């Protein structure tokens, strides 16, 4: 729907706006509607509960990581000092809590690889099993790899109502340093299309967006990893915006100390 | 003029730089926004300052040619050789030569003179050319004949003189330095604007500090609190007002220039409007500055002549034979001549060689008879005795058609009458008996009482036998009769009032402006002119008049009964300041006669002690201290000396008093219109301020950015506010009293309250409505926005959830924030359209004033819309300008609020009109 919105011919837009003969609307509203406007009820009337009127400002999703580093997107881990990373672990645990099986009882298994479009008023959510995140799931390692110096971070694409990624989206990460290697879960950072589209907070209550976990493995002697992750493989998910450094991409740093 | 605002803006700029430095030292990649804003503020201060200076300079420049006053070269005799040197190289003791047409290069003592005449009018006010000789005639250097003054002009003849004073030590130099040392009060408009700046600065600083403290208490970072402070200051300072006020004043100055009032300093435009006393010269300002025949007396009857500026014919009864004789004398006994090459110039405008009276008589006879020169040629002049102050007559002898010689004579009436034994009555000579003498005396007194200069005329046909046509007349031995002549008539002359002056005086009176005449003329003449122009109105009397009417001594008259007063310079000299104050207070119609230019200063000071705004006219160098001292000095464009023009605030191009009155009208209008401009400009300050206050208190994302504020103040609002300067008066502004300097303020609390708290709040509501709408339709509902700020501005949060569960990156939020700015901006702009329309009037309905009479308002509204369209259609989408492309709908969000503003103001005006004097009127009329 956001596409339709953008492609409207501006001139038609104008003309119809001033007076629309089909709906006999003047300046975008009917006579009764103007009356309501005068009564100050406009805001409540025009807004739908389910979707905002316009979405042009978030046409493409941003990418963010969990845990959120405190500043300058730098995750600092000192293995010998647990307090230096404890809050990251807590944040991860907190974030992943809603993905636990017990929280997803109402969610259903969906058919992988295709959009899960629904017509009914209340929408069902697809299950995202933590198992997909494997070692970063926290199921076996409650420290998410921080204890042994190969921390996990979780990457997620921002929720946008109605967004349907084209192609086969995935999150790809690269590290500058040669002596650091990255492993993503699921394989190749794949994002399953069945989690789209999103229908909004009200209709799509139990919706959980798909996640990608990234494990940063430092080889002995290496202490720094400058990582950049991008959403790839989908033409309508931008990752190169000049001004928005978080639109479909994120760059961060992990520093390890012993 | 508006220095207070500049200092506030400087403070804002410095705070910006401090904020930037703090941010930069914390984090090298800190945003440049504050630095940028600081630079913009400095630019705004500098540019508006330069703009004001430029406007001021432009209007001052019009008479920039004033330096012509200094004579460039002087012909000096040094080492026995004549040399031409620059005048400033003269030293005391130099011998200089001057000739007709030269300006005298220094104060000189005349050593030798050949018929040298100088024009001292710029110095002493005497318009007659003065003869200079080497005789010492008076102790007073201004009176003695052997001194020539620096910068006066030598009209004819030649002279040699020794330099006795140069430069600043010359008489003129001393007067000029006296003029520059006379303190000048602040102009009323400067005081008003200062008062206004105090109000605005007071509001800005107090709100700024209160909210700074609130911000600190709410645990905002100090840096953030400083940035809020900048925003609050910026929102409160009407950045564009300096430019708008300056432009409005210079527009009015231009309009005044068209009406012959050239204003040298912009602030004087309004000073003229608040004038409550005008001290006017008589000659040339109230009068036409040319002698004109006013009355004639012959056949024992007084006839009135036409004295208007463009007389074509005289309409009095001209059938009498006496008249023919009188006209003959007037024509022949006259040395004045028309200058060559003026065939196509109308008679009244022709240049004449000769003194003022003779010129008047020449033109008079030319108008009646035509071709005076031909008549003179037919009656060849054979002998002549020019007028001198000793015998008080002028005589000439002419050939006539019938071989007899005709002796014609004119002069002081009593001197002429003495030489007569007969008087002409209906063309017949009759003996000059007692009754005839009495009739003469009555007429003479009557005309003299009118302040007119009376001349007597007589003639004698010389008997042919005694004086054959070969007779040789000798004016030395006077070999012809000069007694027992035949008296023909009297003609009285006056410098008549300008025809539009009486109306102008009536206008002044209804406008509550007191007109005081200050002249060097004789009290009788002064009083007569004052009466004829209405300075002394028809039914008011002086103390002397009352004494005469009641036949009691002057001392017994109750001074309070006399509305009018004629005070001579001598009496003025005796008066104490308290007596002068009393005189000025008790009499509404005052004429000062026989005053010296120096006494003008005393009169001006006396008027100023009454808290009056005083306008003074003047032309001589001697007037310059008074011109300087006056609240508005008005120099004469034609007659004025350069020194007077320099000292004055305004130059009257046509020397006409009536032009002053039209100037006053313009001045009053601009005061009203400045009120409207300021009310218009102040209103949106609240709409600019509220976002910051709500932002601090309710923690919503910032509704409007500082740069956007500058675009309103210096962009969309400029032209509409200037357009208000073209607004016509709502009622006859010349029917109300001059504004009281201390009571009628430009910005009173009614104006401030109504603009800030009524319309300003309405506008803010409209703006916020647009802002919340812009956020809501994109997913952020108002309830979510409250206290969202800490998350909203957090750079590390790139997945902020909106009311619908969608997640936003920081940049996407910024974009939305800018959309909010733009929506708010457009909303304010739309409501400012309503604001400019309601500001057209303060009391009348818009429909009474006419929506389309002032076309500039519509130009202003068009400019608002065009600038807003440009900014919100992509051109403003540069990140630093923080505008976004706006949907068409947002333009109409504030329209209902604009309509409400207009209805509300119409309602306000209606109640004011309905219930004058009510609580509403007192509190809602600004």
From TrEMBL, chain A:
Which InterPro entries does the entry link to?
Na/K_ATPase_sub_beta (IPR000402), Na/K_ATPase_sub_beta_sf (IPR038702)
What does the UniProt entry say about where the protein is found? Answer: Basolateral cell membrane; Membrane
- One Pfam family of this protein, by short name? Na_K-ATPase
Q: Which UniProt keywords apply?
A: Cell membrane, Disulfide bond, Glycoprotein, Ion transport, Membrane, Potassium, Potassium transport, Signal-anchor, Sodium, Sodium transport, Sodium/potassium transport, Transmembrane, Transmembrane helix, Transport
Residue intervals passing through the bilayer: none
Q: What is its main location?
A: membrane
Question: Does this UniProt record's set of keywords contain Cell membrane?
Answer: yes
Q: Please give the biological process terms from Gene Ontology that the record holds.
A: potassium ion transport; sodium ion transport
| Amino-acid biosynthesis in keyword set | no
Q: How does it sit in the membrane?
A: Single-pass type II membrane protein
Output the Gene Ontology cellular-component terms.
basolateral plasma membrane; sodium:potassium-exchanging ATPase complex
Family, as annotated: Belongs to the X(+)/potassium ATPases subunit beta family.
Role summary: This is the non-catalytic component of the active enzyme, which catalyzes the hydrolysis of ATP coupled with the exchange of Na(+) and K(+) ions across the plasma membrane. The exact function of the beta-3 subunit is not known.
Oligomeric and partner information: The sodium/potassium-transporting ATPase is composed of a catalytic alpha subunit, an auxiliary non-catalytic beta subunit and an additional regulatory subunit. Interacts with catalytic alpha subunit ATP12A.
Q: Which PANTHER family did the record assign?
A: SODIUM/POTASSIUM-DEPENDENT ATPASE BETA SUBUNIT, SODIUM_POTASSIUM-TRANSPORTING ATPASE SUBUNIT BETA-3
Under which name does UniProt file this protein?
A: Sodium/potassium-transporting ATPase subunit beta
From what organism does this protein derive? Answer: Monodelphis domestica (Gray short-tailed opossum)
């Amino acid at each position: 729907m956001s596409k339709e919105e953008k492609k409207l011919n501006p001139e038609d837009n104008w003309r119809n706006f001033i007076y629309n003969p089909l709906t006999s609307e003047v300046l975008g509203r009917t006579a009764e509607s103007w009356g309501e406007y005068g009564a100050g009820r406009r805001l409540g009337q025009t807004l739908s509960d389910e979707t905002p009127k316009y979405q042009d400002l978030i046409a493409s999703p941003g990418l963010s990581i969990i845990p959120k580093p405190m500043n300058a997107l730098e995750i600092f881990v000192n293995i010998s000092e647990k307090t230096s990373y404890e809050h990251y672990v807590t944040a991860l645990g907190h974030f992943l809590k809603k993905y636990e099986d017990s929280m997803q009882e109402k969610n259903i298994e969906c058919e992988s690889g295709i959009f899960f479009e629904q017509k009914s008023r209340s929408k069902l959510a697809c299950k995202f099993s933590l198992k997909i995140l494997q070692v970063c799931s926290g199921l076996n390692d409650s420290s998410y790899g921080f204890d042994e110096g190969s921390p996990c971070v979780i990457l997620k694409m921002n929720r946008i109502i109605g967004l349907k990624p084209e192609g086969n989206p995935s999150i790809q990460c690269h590290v500058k340093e040669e002596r650091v290697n990255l492993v993503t879960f699921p394989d190749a950072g794949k994002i399953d299309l069945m989690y789209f589209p999103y229908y909004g907070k009200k209709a799509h209550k139990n919706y959980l967006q798909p996640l990608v976990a990234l494990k940063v493995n430092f080889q002995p002697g290496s202490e720094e990893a400058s990582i950049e992750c991008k959403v790839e493989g989908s033409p309508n998910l931008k990752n190169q915006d000049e001004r928005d450094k978080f639109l479909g991409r994120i760059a961060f740093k992990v520093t390890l100390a012993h | 003029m508006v220095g207070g605002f500049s200092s506030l803006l400087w403070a804002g700029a410095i705070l910006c730089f401090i904020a930037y430095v703090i941010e930069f030292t914390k984090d090298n990649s800190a945003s440049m926004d504050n630095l940028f804003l600081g630079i913009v503020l400095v630019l705004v201060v500098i540019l508006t300052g330069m703009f004001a200076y430029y406007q001021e300079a432009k209007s001052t420049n019009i008479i920039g040619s004033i330096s012509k006053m200094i004579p460039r070269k002087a012909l000096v005799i040094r080492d026995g050789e004549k040399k031409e040197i620059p005048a400033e190289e003269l030293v005391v003791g130099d011998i200089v030569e001057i000739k007709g047409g030269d300006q005298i290069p220094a104060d000189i003592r005349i050593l030798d003179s050949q018929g040298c005449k100088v024009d001292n009018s710029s110095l002493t006010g005497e318009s007659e050319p003065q003869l200079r000789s080497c005789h010492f005639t008076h102790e007073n250097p201004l009176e003695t004949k052997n001194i020539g003054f620096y910068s006066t002009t030598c009209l004819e003849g030649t002279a040699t003189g020794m330099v006795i004073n140069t430069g600043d030590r010359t008489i003129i130099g001393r007067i000029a330095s006296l003029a520059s040392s006379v303190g000048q009060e602040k102009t009323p408009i400067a005081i008003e604007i200062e008062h206004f700046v105090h109000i605005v600065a007071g509001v800005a600083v107090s709100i700024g500090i209160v909210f700074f403290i609130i911000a600190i208490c709410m645990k905002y970072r100090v840096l953030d609190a400083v940035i809020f402070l900048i925003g609050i200051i910026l929102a409160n300072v009407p950045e564009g007002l300096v430019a708008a006020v300056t432009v409005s004043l210079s527009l009015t100055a231009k309009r005044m220039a068209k009406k012959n009032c050239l204003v040298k300093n912009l602030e004087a435009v309004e000073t003229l409007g608040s004038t409550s006393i005008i001290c006017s010269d008589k000659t040339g300002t109230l009068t036409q500055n040319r002698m004109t025949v006013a009355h004639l007396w012959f056949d024992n009857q007084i006839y009135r002549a036409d004295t208007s500026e463009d007389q074509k014919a005289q309409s009095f009864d001209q059938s009498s034979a006496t008249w023919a004789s009188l006209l003959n004398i007037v024509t022949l006994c006259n040395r004045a001549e028309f200058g060559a090459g003026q065939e196509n110039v109308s008679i009244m405008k022709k240049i004449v060689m000769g003194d003022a009276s003779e010129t008047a008589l020449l033109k008079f006879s030319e108008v009646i008879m035509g071709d005076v020169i031909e008549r003179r040629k037919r009656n060849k002049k054979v002998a002549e005795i020019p007028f001198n102050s000793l015998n008080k007559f002028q005589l000439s002898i002419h050939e006539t058609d019938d071989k007899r010689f005709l002796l014609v004579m004119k002069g002081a009436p009593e001197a002429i009458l003495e030489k007569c034994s007969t008087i002409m009555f209906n063309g017949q000579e009759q003996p000059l008996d007692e009754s005839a003498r009495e009739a003469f005396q009555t007429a003479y007194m009557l005309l003299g009482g009118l302040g007119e200069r009376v001349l007597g005329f007589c003639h004698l046909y010389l008997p042919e036998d005694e004086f054959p046509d070969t007779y040789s007349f000798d004016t030395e031995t006077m070999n012809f009769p000069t007694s027992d002549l035949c008296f023909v008539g009297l003609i009285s002359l006056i410098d008549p009032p300008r025809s539009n002056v009486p109306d102008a005086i009536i206008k002044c009176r209804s406008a509550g402006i007191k007109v005081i005449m200050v002249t060097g003329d004789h009290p009788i003449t002064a009083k007569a002119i004052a009466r004829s122009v209405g300075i002394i109105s028809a039914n008011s009397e002086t103390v002397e008049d009352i004494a005469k009417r009641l036949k009691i001594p002057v001392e017994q008259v109750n001074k309070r009964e006399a509305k009018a007063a004629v005070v001579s310079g001598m009496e003025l000299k005796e008066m104490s300041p308290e007596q002068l104050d009393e005189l000025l207070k008790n009499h509404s119609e005052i004429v000062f006669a026989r005053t010296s230019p120096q006494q003008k200063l005393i009169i001006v000071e006396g008027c100023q002690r009454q808290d009056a705004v005083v306008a003074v006219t003047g032309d001589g160098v001697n007037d310059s201290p008074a011109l300087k001292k006056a609240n508005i000095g008005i120099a004469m464009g034609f007659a004025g000396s350069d020194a007077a023009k320099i000292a004055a605030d305004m130059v009257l191009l046509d020397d006409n008093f009536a032009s002053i009155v039209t100037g006053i009208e313009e001045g009053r209008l601009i005061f009203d219109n400045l009120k409207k401009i300021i009310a218009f400009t102040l209103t949106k300050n609240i709409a600019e301020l509220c976002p910051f206050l709500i932002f601090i208190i309710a923690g919503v994302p910032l509704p409007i950015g500082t740069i956007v504020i500058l675009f309103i103040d210096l962009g969309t609002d400029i032209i509409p506010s200037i357009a208000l300067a073209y607004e016509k008066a709502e009622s006859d502004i010349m029917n109300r009293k001059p504004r009281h300097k201390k009571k009628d303020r430009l910005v009173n609390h009614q104006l401030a309250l109504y603009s800030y708290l009524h319309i300003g709040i309405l506008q803010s509501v409209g703006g916020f409505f647009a802002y919340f709408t812009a956020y809501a339709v994109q997913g952020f509902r108002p309830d979510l926005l409250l206290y969202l700020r800490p998350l909203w501005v957090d750079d590390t949060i790139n997945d902020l959830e909106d009311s619908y569960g969608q997640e936003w990156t920081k940049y996407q939020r910024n974009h939305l924030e800018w959309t909010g700015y733009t929506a708010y901006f457009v909303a304010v702009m739309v409501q400012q359209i309503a604001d400019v329309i309601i500001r057209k009037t303060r009391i009348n309905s818009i429909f009474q004033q006419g929506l389309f009479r002032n076309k500039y308002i519509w130009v202003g509204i068009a400019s608002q819309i065009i600038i807003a369209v440009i900014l919100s259609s992509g051109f403003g989408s540069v990140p630093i300008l923080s505008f976004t492309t706006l949907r068409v709908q947002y333009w109409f969000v504030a329209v209902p609020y604009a309509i409400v503003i207009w209805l509300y103001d119409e309602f306000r005006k209606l109640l004011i009109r309905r219930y004058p004097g009510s609580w509403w009127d007192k509190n809602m009329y600004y």
